[in-house]
Design brief:
- A seven-stranded antiparallel sheet has the order 4-3-2-1-5-6-7, with helices on one face.
- Helix content is 37%, strand content 23%.
- The chain folds into two domains: 5-114, no CATH class; 137-393, 3-Layer(aba) Sandwich (Rossmann fold).
- It is an alpha/beta fold and 395 residues long.
- The model has no long low-confidence stretch (mean pLDDT 84).
- The chain has helices at 5-16, 73-83, 137-142, 146-165, 185-194, 209-221, 263-274, 287-296, 303-306, 309-330, 364-377, 382-386, 388-393; strands at 22-28, 40-48, 51-59, 64-70, 89-94, 98-103, 109-114, 174-179, 200-206, 228-232, 253-257, 278-282, 333-339, 350-356.
- Helix 10 runs antiparallel to helix 11.
């Protein structure tokens, strides 16, 4: 039930300022009427030589700024300033419970509490904590070795950040769809991670019936069959009900991990059609735009690059993902293109991380830059064709 926003925020304040209770807090997202100065802020207690302090890490579009403040009046003032910012979501984990606060379009608060205790880690230079314990039965069932576990952990950190920033619903199961799920290593990991503090329903879709059979058997072995469903089909032939459930709830998180060539574009377009708040796509190959670049020739002075096959392919990879990010921004997403894991573990380590903002005002400068780029190269990105109606509606 929505409640007064100021009152809900004041329930968070003592938890944020208790050095023995707070595990970690994240503020992210934006409200309908205002934009905070940072896209994300993280808070946690930290032990320094001068004693325990409140660490605040604020992320803008380019960098992270860290401050360590002694508990007391100064920390109280810093927390009050953060609570006054127009963040759309607060996620607060304590040693006894987890609180999720979401600001509605009407400016009210939806506050959800779960009895999910966390463990404090206050060391200044501690080793990175695994988001899923390496000894979890999940990895045994999947047959995942150390290399695969590192990929899983890196992926989950990107997912964690995106989910914290997004405007996700509360009061119902979170709906996740993995388009082109393959052997579903990351589908299973995403479910295991997200289901730690809320109910989740995940559907994996792949063209190959043998993948459906394999993954369904693994879900049964893990006793997750009621929450995880695998179907055989094409991305655009998603069975009825996968876009919305019986109650009309839309998909919340779309995954498209290592989908080949234009299958990534198909998945992104499907996510846009569903207005999914979170989209994570890790492209595999980029043949479509590379073919168009070869056929049309390179604008000067890029002939120096494209005369070498390997460099033309790499440039094609970069241009493909650049236009994908630009197109997602044009239809209302905040987008980052990141390296989510070292190339030591997989050469296909680029991740497109998109969080829906619902922004409706076009960016004329960004639009002009995009149009100039595709015109110079004489290419028509597949995603542009798929999103033609969405793009036209925003002009």
């Amino acid at each position: 039930m929505p409640e007064d926003l100021d009152g809900a925020l004041q329930q968070l304040r003592p938890l944020l300022l208790d050095p023995d209770v707070l595990v970690r807090a994240v503020a992210a997202g934006r409200r309908r009427s205002a934009v905070p100065p940072w896209r994300r802020v993280e808070l946690r207690p930290i032990d320094l030589k001068a004693g325990r302090h409140l660490q605040v890490v604020a992320y803008d579009e380019r960098q992270a700024t860290t401050t360590n403040t002694a508990y007391g009046d100064q920390a109280g003032a810093e927390v009050d300033a953060l609570l006054a910012q127009p963040f759309g979501n607060w996620h607060v984990q304590t040693t006894t419970e987890t609180l999720q606060l979401r600001v509605t379009k009407k400016g009210l608060a939806q506050l959800h509490r779960t009895a999910d205790a966390g463990e404090q880690h206050t060391e200044h230079d501690r080793a990175a904590r695994h988001l899923i314990d390496p000894g979890d039965p999940l990895f045994r069932v999947l047959g995942a070795g150390a290399s695969k576990r590192r990929q899983v952990d890196a992926f989950l950190r990107v997912l964690q950040a995106a989910v914290a920033e997004a405007d996700l619903p509360t009061g119902r199961p979170l709906r996740v769809v993995d388009l082109g799920c393959g052997n579903a290593y990351l589908s299973f990991a995403a479910y295991r991670f997200l289901a730690a503090d809320r109910e989740v329903r995940l559907t994996g879709i792949d063209q190959r019936p043998e993948m459906r059979e394999r993954n369904s058997a693994l879900a049964a072995e893990l006793c997750w069959s009621e929450a995880m469903t695998f179907v055989a089909g094409d991305i655009f032939d998603t069975p009825a009900g996968e876009g919305t459930d019986d109650a009309g709830n839309s998909v919340d998180v779309v995954l498209a991990l290592h989908a080949c060539d234009t299958a990534t574009d198909d998945a992104l377009a499907q996510a846009v059609r569903w207005a999914a708040p979170v989209v994570l796509a890790s492209p595999c190959c980029h043949h479509d735009l590379q073919r168009q670049m070869s056929a049309g020739g390179a604008p000067p002075p890029y002939g120096l690059v494209t005369r070498h096959n390997i460099l033309r392919e790499r440039l094609g990879d970069v241009l493909t993902d650049a236009v994908r990010a630009a197109l997602l921004r044009r239809v209302g997403y905040q987008v980052e293109v990141v390296q989510f894991v070292s190339a030591e573990y997989t050469p296909r380590n680029t991740m497109i991380r998109a969080v829906r903002t619902g922004a409706t005002q076009p960016d004329s400068r960004a639009d002009a830059e995009y149009e100039a780029l595709v015109a110079d190269w004489g290419v028509t990105p597949h995603l542009q064709t798929l999103l033609a109606d969405d793009l036209a509606a925003r002009r």
